[in-house]
Specification:
heterodimer; A: 163 residues; mainly beta; six-stranded antiparallel sheet; globular; B: seven-stranded antiparallel sheet
């Protein structure tokens, strides 16, 4: 099991968009399980007032998917850590297919992300998997594709600052 | 009948960038099925997300664009924060940078008990992403 310190040694994502708390199980190159705890202090709830409906606290699908995608990057980069995009690669999602959102996560829920490798090359990967709460699948991901690119391959404005 | 509506992130339309970081202007071109929608979103370069994605190389997380599409659909249909129940596909073609302004062009069509949204997000550099997403008709209707 690795916590945030270990995760930060593999992923370049940082606060407030580091959305994985702990890796509980990993079979390098094959599969990984990670957890994300949803709390009422998430920035996405910042603007909800006292009269907000309970349903307003459903964790946004985009962030749930981002958290799952970060878990998949942990698997992809487990044996080739990439904590600094300026020294390593920029991780860019390239495609997502067939995601079913079956239920929502709410503050207090511990989301378990399960990811499995479909195919990995030097500069790209395809993974699949699901997210669960209390053993119940809340989201299934048919296919997620990610590309690893040098920062200099992107637009010039994204290049490493010379100074 | 055509209609035009405006909103801003301060209304809670786009909550993911920690406040009034985005401005969404929705232009509902047609009130019939399919509904055509356009919106414009400006990305505040000081949005906190950029400090973490990524340090030294600020890029908008691609999945934020999904929330922008959903917010656009929500503003157009009068639904607060609609949640997709099925993502058929998303293609990410180029990254969105701080201070970018991008346009969301979406079309909504009813298909049985679902509403299918086909959308593209474009910046000055071209198409950044394309989407085919489904919402429940019981949640998103017009």
């Amino acid at each position: 099991m690795i916590g945030v310190r270990g995760i930060r040694r593999i992923l370049p994502h940082r606060h407030p968009i580091l959305l994985v708390d702990v890796v509980t199980d990993v079979e390098p190159g094959s599969r990984l399980t990670a957890h994300k705890a949803v709390t009422a202090n998430e920035p996405c709830y910042r603007h909800l007032g006292d009269d907000a409906e309970e349903s307003s606290y459903a964790y946004p699908v985009g962030l749930l998917l981002e958290s799952w995608a970060q878990s998949s990057l942990l698997l992809v980069c487990w044996q080739r850590p990439n904590p600094d995009v300026l020294a390593g690669k920029v991780e860019l999602a390239s495609g997502i297919r067939k995601v079913d959102v079956l239920a929502a996560a709410y503050p207090g829920d511990l989301v378990e992300h399960r990811v499995e490798t479909v195919r990995v090359t030097d500069d790209a990967a395809i993974v699949t998997g699901a997210s669960l709460v209390n053993g119940r699948t809340i989201m299934s991901v048919g296919q997620f594709s990610v590309a690893l690119r040098d920062v200099d391959e992107l637009s010039p404005v994204l290049r490493k600052e010379e100074n | 009948m055509d209609s035009r509506r405006r909103t801003a992130a301060s209304d809670g339309a786009v909550p993911l960038l920690h406040g009034a970081d985005l401005t969404v202007v929705v232009d509902v071109v047609s009130g019939r099925t399919p509904m055509a929608i356009t919106s414009r979103v400006w990305v505040d370069p000081d949005a906190p997300v950029f400090s973490g994605h990524y340090p030294g190389c600020a890029l908008l997380p691609g999945l934020y664009l999904l929330e922008c599409v959903s917010s656009t659909v929500g503003v157009a249909t009068g639904v607060r924060r609609p949640r997709p129940h099925r993502i058929e596909r998303i293609r990410f073609l180029s990254p969105v940078r701080p201070d970018d302004e991008f346009a969301v062009e979406a079309e909504l069509a009813r298909e049985g008990d679902a509403v299918t949204c086909t959308a593209t997000v474009s910046t000055n550099a071209g198409t950044a992403a394309s989407f085919r997403v489904r919402y429940r008709a019981s949640e998103v209707s017009w």
